[in-house]
Amino acid sequence: MSRILYSLSGTDISRPFSPHCWKAAMALHHKGLEFDEKLLSFTEIPTVEGGVTKLVPLLRDEDTLVSDSFQIALYLEETYPFAPSLFGGEGGKAMARFVEGYSQSTIHPAISAIALMDIYNMVAPADQAHFRKTREAMFGKPLEEIFPDREGAIAAFPAKLQPLRHMLRSQPFIGGASPLFGDYIVFGALQWLKITTGSVHLPADDPALDWFERCLDLYNGLGRTVA
């Protein structure tokens, strides 16, 4: 197949966990496009496609290479305009940028505080060395000391999704009656948390959890293929 999505996994290559790769995979399914997914470790990423990127997702579509999940979504929208829209118009693109900002500034840091050591334990020794080096350089302290209160982070996590709950009073998806790329942005974050820690750490009666379950069911239960 000429369409390949390069994604991230740990030692178990059946369990891709990157939130950004999940966004891209959901976007491809939304468009109804067939693709092969190639799972890479952290240290393998620079070895593919001539070292064009150090980060995934990376999409090869025939002779075109596109990195960054949002850029992949924009590329798919422009290249396949007759397939279902990921944004529903220019306003939807702007809305998705806001959702991305909310997710990466609020949800992602909260997940990192829970999942950091889980991620470290999922990857091979060479990738552990890479993960430790990059995160310790970023935070200026040993990996084990970056987020010392995991239980406190779990207790605080549900509050980070209050904007999502507020929206769900009016509609079933961020995209309205059906999901758009904005949904896949937040879904990717919660899928990252679920795969790395085994839970999304939300109460059973949480509307945000109900929304996540609906997203797991999309595309013949794509999100449920990774336990």
TrEMBL record:
| Transmembrane residue ranges | none
Biological process GO annotation list? glutathione metabolic process; L-phenylalanine catabolic process
Residues in a coiled coil are none
Indicate what this protein is called per its UniProt record. Beta-aryl ether-cleaving protein
Annotated ranges, domain GST N-terminal:
8-84
- UniProt source species: Rhizobium oryziradicis
Which PROSITE patterns does this one have?
GST_NTER
* Gene Ontology terms, MF aspect: glutathione transferase activity; maleylacetoacetate isomerase activity
The superkingdom of the source organism is: Bacteria
Q: Which CDD domains match?
A: GST_C_etherase_LigE
